[in-house]
């Protein structure tokens, strides 16, 4: 899959960009020439990370945002509208896993007993927040000549693979997390269809099994490798896919 490698003049926003996959996504986009804004719940942490990037000669800023808070999302719109008048790349990277500590330890299927508040909190952060922020920022993305929306999903959101007892993820039934990513994939499909004919591309990506607080220490790739698919989707050329679900060059089943 080919990408556009020169992002000079482009403005990108990465939620959850102060650590993990998000941080490496920020680094990768900035190295390609983009102005990248970190969205961080911890304002001090976000500013510290942005300053570190600036010392490396990268054009990185940070704003405080809790994507679960509508007023924060409105403030993000106002920030980009005032300072740039557009947004070229939105990476909905922020997300949570509440079913258990991480997916590295043995997964126990608790679908019949999982507290409803865990399901609701997971959907708030992994699904409803993404819709709210994307809807608010869409007018600015429409002002870009090549808008890109990247929804950080997971292969664990694939209903096809979860229904196949022979698939490698069959036993990983973290219901709240998995279902929230399935729902996010539905948002990708529907929004991409609505925006067909515009310059915006909307895709879901699986980062791989990454060594993060969510993925755990037993995961098979590091955060730099885990950022590659997000960067790929953010830099797709005009003839690239929209409404797709992929990991690097591999299309994943819904």
From TrEMBL:
<protein>
    <submittedName>
        <fullName>Short-chain dehydrogenase</fullName>
    </submittedName>
</protein>
<dbReference type="InterPro" id="IPR020904">
    <property type="entry name" value="Sc_DH/Rdtase_CS"/>
</dbReference>
<dbReference type="InterPro" id="IPR002347">
    <property type="entry name" value="SDR_fam"/>
</dbReference>
<keyword id="KW-0560">Oxidoreductase</keyword>
<comment type="similarity">
    <text>Belongs to the short-chain dehydrogenases/reductases (SDR) family.</text>
</comment>
<dbReference type="GO" id="GO:0016491">
    <property type="term" value="F:oxidoreductase activity"/>
</dbReference>
<dbReference type="Pfam" id="PF00106">
    <property type="entry name" value="adh_short"/>
</dbReference>
<dbReference type="InterPro" id="IPR036291">
    <property type="entry name" value="NAD(P)-bd_dom_sf"/>
</dbReference>
<keyword id="KW-0521">NADP</keyword>
């Amino acid at each position: 899959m080919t990408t556009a490698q020169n992002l000079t003049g482009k403005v990108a926003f990465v939620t959850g960009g102060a650590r993990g996959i998000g941080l490496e996504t920020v680094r990768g986009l900035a190295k390609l020439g983009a102005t990248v804004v970190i969205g961080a719940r911890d304002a001090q942490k976000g500013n510290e990370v942005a300053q570190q990037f600036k010392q490396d000669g990268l054009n990185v800023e940070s704003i405080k945002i809790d994507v679960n808070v509508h007023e924060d999302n409105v403030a993000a719109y106002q920030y980009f509208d005032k300072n740039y008048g557009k947004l070229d790349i939105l990476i909905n990277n922020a997300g949570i896993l509440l079913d258990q500590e991480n997916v590295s330890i043995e997964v126990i299927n608790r679908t019949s007993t999982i507290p409803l508040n865990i399901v609701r909190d997971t959907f708030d952060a992994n699904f409803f927040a993404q819709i709210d922020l994307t809807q608010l920022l869409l007018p600015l993305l429409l002002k870009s000549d090549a808008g890109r929306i990247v929804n950080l999903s997971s292969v664990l959101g694939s209903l096809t693979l979860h229904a196949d007892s022979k698939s490698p993820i069959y036993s990983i039934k973290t219901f709240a997390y998995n279902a929230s990513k399935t729902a996010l994939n539905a948002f990708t499909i529907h929004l991409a269809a609505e925006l067909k004919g515009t310059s915006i591309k909307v895709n879901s990506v699986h980062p791989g099994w990454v060594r993060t607080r969510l993925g755990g220490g037993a995961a098979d790739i590091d955060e730099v490798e885990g950022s590659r698919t997000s960067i790929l989707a953010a830099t797709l050329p005009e003839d690239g896919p929209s409404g797709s679900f992929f990991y690097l060059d591999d299309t994943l089943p819904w």
